[in-house]
Specification:
157 residues; five-stranded antiparallel beta sheet; 5 strands
Amino acid sequence: MIKGVETKVDLRLRCEGKLLSVRQALQHVHQFLSVQAVPCALVEDIDLVLSEAMTNIVRHGYGGIDGVIECDLVVNDTSVDCCLSDTGRSFDPAGAGRAPPEPDDLAEGGYGWFLIRSLTNKLSYTREGGRNVLRFSVSAMQGMGKDGAEVQVLSCG
């Protein structure tokens, strides 16, 4: 990311509401963010958040019916901002993921919203004109060391 100059780089994706299509979209996002010189730790956090959110849309929002997921990303010098939208069933995440699931329950699910809440800022959900709209931001500071120096990682893989 360029320091000292406010820059914005946009990516707009549309994919089918199917797990394979989500996987392909996530690969495209990963490549896009890597080309923008987004720190690897931040790319990994965004990958995880998008994977959780988009998988939830496929499994719970569409639940086997056809649909489309739209993903808009804006990369700037302070954050990566994201907007996901779909026409699946509505969902109120107000109480979801406020605390981590109990490890003793050994449940496979239940960690997604906790991870999403833990890794994002400005998280909001609305239902607008028959569409679910999830907005969030991931701070560039998550890719920084304690003293503000950027953490150097050789490869994001």
